[in-house]
Amino acid sequence: MRGRECESRSRFTQAMTVSASRRTPLQARSNQTVEEILDAASSLLGRLPFEEITTSRIAAQAGISVGALYRFYSGRQEIFDRVAVRELDAFRAGIERAFTARQLIFSPRKSLGRVLDAYVDFLESHPHFRELALGNHISESTRESQADPQTGPGGILGDLLVKKCGWKPGKKLQLRIRIAAEAGDRVIAFAYRQESAEARQAVLKELKDMLTGYLLP
Q1: Is the pLDDT of residue 58 over 50?
Q2: I need a surface site. Which of 19, 58, 64, 166 has the fewest CB within 10 A?
Q3: What digits encode the pLDDT tens for the residues 99-131?
Q4: Is 79 exposed, middle or buried, given 0-12, 13-18 or 19+ CB atoms closer than 10 A?
Q5: What is the per-residue DSSP string for the chain?
Q6: Over the stretch 154-194, which tens digit does the pLDDT of each residue have?
Q7: How far apart are the C-alpha atoms of 62 and 150, rounded to whole Å?
Q8: Using an 8 Å Cβ cutoff, are 88 and 122 in contact?
Q9: How far, CA to CA in Å, does 90 sit from each of 59, 84, 157, 168?
């Protein structure tokens, strides 16, 4: 009986190993397809009017069928939302690395300016994200989740104020960060509607002064 039991276990183990080895490449291919869809949508932003970027165009750009696209996303809004979240995650990671890598005397005012400057630089170097963020093409639910002071970009500044300045974490700080983020988004969009780079920079400077006065009186 023991021999049969060991043989049965051996066959079961082999079957599980084969099954796992089959699943792993499938998952890797799925992840690759997801990234290709997001890359395709990103490449179309800015090259075509937003209204003309359909799931069919995204699928064609990604080199897959529309049916394959719908296996991963319910429609173009979900794709654009995911592109925006992916870019914001990259921005947050970059900011966190920058602040942890620099051995600088912490200055709340300078740090606030650095976060704002880094975000504007990110918009400049990622025109597809700028199209989404400033063109109001991100769904309200995704925008709300990313605006949360605990998880959104404002959370970076909140962490700095708590860890470096000793501010007390809580609802009051979260509300102030949220208000600053909402105001900042709108003023940045206004800055990018200016006719010249000089005019845009003037608006951004006023924004920096405004946020500094509000958050760091």
Answers
A1: yes
A2: 166
A3: 666 555 567 778 788 888 888 999 999 999 999
A4: buried
A5: -HHHHHHHHHHHHHHHHHHHHHHHHHHHHHHHHHHHHHHHHHHHBTTB-GGG--HHHHHHHHTS-HHHHHTT-SSHHHHHHHHHHHHHHHHHHHHHHHHHH------HHHHHHHHHHHHHHHHHH-HHHHHHHHTT-S-HHHHHHHH-TTTSTHHHHHHHHHHHH-PPPSHHHHHHHHHHHHHHHHHHHHHTTSSSHHHHHHHHHHHHHHHHHHH--
A6: 666 677 677 766 777 778 888 888 888 889 889 999 999 99
A7: 34
A8: no
A9: 24, 10, 16, 28
Long-range contacts of 104-108 (CB under 8 A, 24+ apart): 106/160, 106/164, 106/165, 108/160, 108/161, 108/164, 108/165, 108/215, 108/216
Going from the N-terminus, what domains does the chain have, and what CATH number goes with each?
Answer: 1-73 (1.10.10.60), 76-217 (1.10.357)
pLDDT at 216 over 60: yes
Q: What is the pLDDT of residue 123?
A: 92
Share of the chain above pLDDT 70, in %: 75
> What per-residue confidence (pLDDT) applies to 142?
85
